[in-house]
């Protein structure tokens, strides 16, 4: 018996998912994880009346398959079980979630700490105020605590540094301050529009990434074949979001090294990009642009024109500013060899998205598990090998240029207006569906399970930040504490995407 | 006496618009309109009108420090001459007192920030203390060299005599201005050593030290920065004021030097990134070396060594 392979956005019957005894389930999935081309996209539990069913989804980068397997355990027994994490560290976040939500105990989990303090956690005595921080007892070392109230105006998170003078020995990141219970809201909200709006609000800076994941998932569940115009509009929107956020990040990186010119110019360049979203759909963050089963804002020749004009003005300025920045010694001195994540570390923690690609680990859903029009674009992921802040800056510029090229090619071939899309059918009953998208921050995974009436009973969201926060904690080790902000900005991870 | 007070009046006048010019320069270079020249001063006046809030963990030191800091600065500017006009106070070796007055003010700011017990402020205090300590040799070697060259040991004596030398004194003046500009940048925690605009406590030096100061105290500390800039600007201007000129020549030269200094600071802050924290000591040592070079030049020039 083996795990069942499905493709991205494929729905299958729950009963088709093989159920293994826990030990075999553990062997199977950790065995697969030891292969660098296989990584875990989601691992979660679904609590039924008397038992907990664990689902593990492993993505195979070589053939575009996602291997689903499951096991049934009884969390009420209180018996500790062996952990995946002891075999492969990338599972640690998933097992921490299982431990937190269902009270599962592990015999050998090395880092069994609360993940996000979900409202429905098993142990309500575990509170955000008594998080078990890692400590080093020493006269020489000192602790610096930052947050949860951020000095600027971004989201809350607590960072606890253990420092030797100016040097960071260890950073522990405590999150959970943003928990809204968004996964529970999906089954509670009954209309499609409500769910669609929820998906837009999973992470405010990845509206397109998460909404496309939701829409693709829902359409697969309702056996809806999206027409060319829908796929086309979503592809353009995905790439435009990537351009907008990457540009903003370049500006923020310049701000953090106090390079005023770069900060001002990149900041100015981001505005017309998000304003194009405003022209297109009436919202600068692209909310309402994507709706499951329909295409409320098709790409018209006017929009295509606006995009062309945008890039004609944007690209020369971007190139000039970037050229100037990357030849400025004072900027390079701050970025190069700062906050390094090695390929070995990236593999071990299961890093995804640009954070993985800058360490030489190719994780790009557009390439390995194509969705929308990405199968037709000969997409080649951009890979860097140094894993430092400079690599993460370079990849942003290069991905912007790549996305501009894709959009320019796409708007040369606007699909005709005569396409009529079919109607959404009722969601399939007793179904499991998984959707992967490559947001600007990396791989987004949405999973859903329906009951015998076709009602949504479980919705699981995985934002790329879930893995990559650990990358940040590793990156800052042995760096100056004053370089932490620039490392943090180079990852630009989501708090609410993690906290859900 | 009237002319002796002129120096103080000019420094006070300059301090009102100095940071305004820096901010304006930066905004023009980044393509923004920017606030008015007087905006930083308006912000300071706003703070001065407010009451201060004190943390329960702090002692009287914390409340005392900003006032002592301001007092030391006001006293220090009494020593600054204007061309060949002496400052209000002038005696042999006054530049030593000048340096340690500034150090006293800084010392109180450092212990006040330690008084709060915040790990951030402790970090800022240790950085500020370290960099002030490193910059001290540059100042003393420089002033000592000039004392050797001119044979005087007071500000007024040194600056008065400096101009009767040959062209080499102008060369030295330019080199010394360069060192003084940098000392001013380091002492005021500006770029490229510190970034006064940042919102990130972990990278701050000066700003993180004064996190707990508010209202009137904060106003004093902020005004202290302006005053310090104007003070160093005045010292630099002294290298360019040729004695014998009437005040209606000297004052425009003085103002030009001050405005030029502010524009230079703004330009540096616009077109470069700040240093990585552990590169700062290296950078500061560089200026000690330049001071040593000036010292060596003077030794050669005066025939002390051959």
Fold blueprint:
The complex is a heterodimer of chains A (500) and B (306).
Chain A: E1 4-6, E2 10-13, E3 19-20, H1 22-33, E4 38-47, E5 52-60, E6 66-73, H2 92-102, E7 142-146, E8 158-164, E9 167-174, H3 182-188, H4 192-200, H5 207-221, H6 228-256, H7 260-281, H8 301-326, H9 329-335, H10 343-349, H11 353-357, H12 365-368, H13 389-410, E10 431-439, E11 442-450, E12 456-462, H14 465-475, H15 484-491, H16 495-499
Parallel strand pairs in A: 3-6
Antiparallel strand pairs in A: 1-6, 2-10, 4-5, 5-6, 7-8, 8-9, 10-11, 11-12
Chain B: H1 2-29, H2 39-49, H3 60-77, H4 94-115, H5 119-150, H6 155-162, H7 168-187, H8 206-209, H9 215-240, H10 247-271, H11 280-301
Description:
The complex is a heterodimer of chains A (about 500) and B (about 300). Chain A is α+β, with helices and mostly antiparallel strands. Chain A has two domains: about 1-115, Beta Polymerase, domain 2 (2-Layer Sandwich); about 180-500, Cytochrome-c3 Hydrogenase, chain B, CATH 1.10.645.10. Chain A is about 40% helix and about 15% strand. In chain A, the strands form three sheets. In chain A, strands 1, 3, 4, 5 and 6 form a five-stranded mixed beta sheet that branches. Chain A has a four-stranded antiparallel beta sheet with strand order 2-10-11-12. In chain A, strand 4 and strand 5 (about 50-60) form a beta hairpin. In chain A, helix 6 runs antiparallel to helix 13. With about 300 residues, chain B is mainly alpha-helical. Chain B has one domain (about 1-300). Chain B is about 70% helix and about 0% strand. The model of chain B has no long low-confidence stretch (mean pLDDT about 90). Chains A and B meet through strand 7, helix 6, helix 7 and helix 9 of A and helix 5 and helix 10 of B.
């Amino acid at each position: 018996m083996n795990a069942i392979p499905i493709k991205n956005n494929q729905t299958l019957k729950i009963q088709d998912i093989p159920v293994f005894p826990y030990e075999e389930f553990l062997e199977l999935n950790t065995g697969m994880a030891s292969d660098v081309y296989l990584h875990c996209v989601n691992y979660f539990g679904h609590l039924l009346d008397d038992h907990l069913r664990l689902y593990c989804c492993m993505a195979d980068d070589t053939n575009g398959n996602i291997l689903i397997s499951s096991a049934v355990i009884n969390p009420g027994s209180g018996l500790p079980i062996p952990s995946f994490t002891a075999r492969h560290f990338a599972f640690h976040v998933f097992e921490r979630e299982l431990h937190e939500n269902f009270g599962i105990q592990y015999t050998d989990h090395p880092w069994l700490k609360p993940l996000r303090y979900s409202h429905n956690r098993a142990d309500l005595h575990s509170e955000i105020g008594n998080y078990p921080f890692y400590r080093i007892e020493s006269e020489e070392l000192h602790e610096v605590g930052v947050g949860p109230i951020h000095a600027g105006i971004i989201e809350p998170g607590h960072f606890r540094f253990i420092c030797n003078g100016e040097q960071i020995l260890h950073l522990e990141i405590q999150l959970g301050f943003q928990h809204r219970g968004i996964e529970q809201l999906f089954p509670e909200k009954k209309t499609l529009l409500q769910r669609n709006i929820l998906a837009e609000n999973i992470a405010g800076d990845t509206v397109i990434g998460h909404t496309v994941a939701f829409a693709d998932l829902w359409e697969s569940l309702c056996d809806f074949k999206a027409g060319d115009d829908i796929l086309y509009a979503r592809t353009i929107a995905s790439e435009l979001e990537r351009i907008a956020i990457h540009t903003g990040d370049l500006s923020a990186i310049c701000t953090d090294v106090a390079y005023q010119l770069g900060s001002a110019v990149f900041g100015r360049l981001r505005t017309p990009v998000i304003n194009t979203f405003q022209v297109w759909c009436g919202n600068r963050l692209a909310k309402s642009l994507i709706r499951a089963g329909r295409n409320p804002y098709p790409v018209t020749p006017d929009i295509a024109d606006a995009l062309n004009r945008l890039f004609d003005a944007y690209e020369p300025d971007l190139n000039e500013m970037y050229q100037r920045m990357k030849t400025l010694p004072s900027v390079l001195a701050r970025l190069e060899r700062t906050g390094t994540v090695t390929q070995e570390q990236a593999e071990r923690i299961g890093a995804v998205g640009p954070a993985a690609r800058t360490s030489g680990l190719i994780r790009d859903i557009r390439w390995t598990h194509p969705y929308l029009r990405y199968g037709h674009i000969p997409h080649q992921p951009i890979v860097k090998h140094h894993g430092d802040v400079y690599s993460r800056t370079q990849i942003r510029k290069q991905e912007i240029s790549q996305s501009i090229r894709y959009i320019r090619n796409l708007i040369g071939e606007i699909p005709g207006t005569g396409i009529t899309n079919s109607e959404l059918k009722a969601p399939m009953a007793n179904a499991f569906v998984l959707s992967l998208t490559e947001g600007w921050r990396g791989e987004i995974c949405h999973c859903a399970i329906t009951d015998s009436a076709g009602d949504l009973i479980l919705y699981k969201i995985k934002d790329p930040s879930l893995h990559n926060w650990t990358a940040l904690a590793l990156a800052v080790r042995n760096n100056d504490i004053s370089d932490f902000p620039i490392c943090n900005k180079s990852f630009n991870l989501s708090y609410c995407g993690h906290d859900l | 006496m009237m002319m002796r007070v002129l120096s103080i009046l000019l420094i006070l006048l300059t301090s009102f618009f100095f940071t305004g010019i820096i901010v304006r320069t930066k905004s023009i270079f980044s393509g923004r309109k920017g606030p008015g020249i007087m905006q930083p001063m308006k912000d300071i006046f706003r703070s001065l009108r407010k009451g201060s809030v004190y943390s329960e963990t702090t002692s009287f030191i914390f409340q005392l420090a900003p006032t002592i800091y301001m007092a030391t600065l006001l006293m220090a500017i009494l020593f600054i001459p204007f061309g060949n006009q002496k400052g209000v106070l002038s005696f042999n070796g006054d530049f030593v007192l000048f340096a340690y007055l500034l150090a006293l003010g800084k010392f109180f700011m450092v212990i006040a920030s330690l008084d709060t017990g915040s790990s951030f402020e402790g970090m800022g205090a240790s950085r500020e203390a370290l960099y002030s300590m490193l910059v001290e040799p540059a100042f003393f070697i420089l002033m000592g060299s000039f004392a050797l060259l001119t044979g005087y040991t007071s500000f007024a004596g040194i600056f008065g005599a400096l101009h009767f030398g040959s062209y080499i004194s102008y060369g030295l003046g330019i080199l010394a201005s360069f060192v003084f500009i940098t000392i001013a940048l380091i002492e005021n925690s500006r770029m490229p050593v510190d970034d006064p605009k940042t919102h990130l406590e972990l990278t701050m030096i000066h700003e993180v030290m004064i996190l707990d100061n508010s209202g009137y105290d904060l106003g004093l500390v902020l005004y202290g920065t302006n005053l310090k800039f104007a003070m160093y600007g005045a010292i630099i201007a002294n290298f360019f004021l040729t004695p014998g000129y009437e005040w209606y020549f000297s004052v425009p030269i003085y103002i030009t030097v001050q405005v030029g200094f502010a524009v230079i600071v703004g330009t540096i802050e616009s077109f470069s990134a700040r240093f990585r924290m552990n590169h700062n000591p290296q950078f500061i040592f560089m200026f000690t070396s330049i001071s040593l070079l000036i010292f060596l030049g003077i030794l050669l020039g005066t025939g002390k060594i051959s």
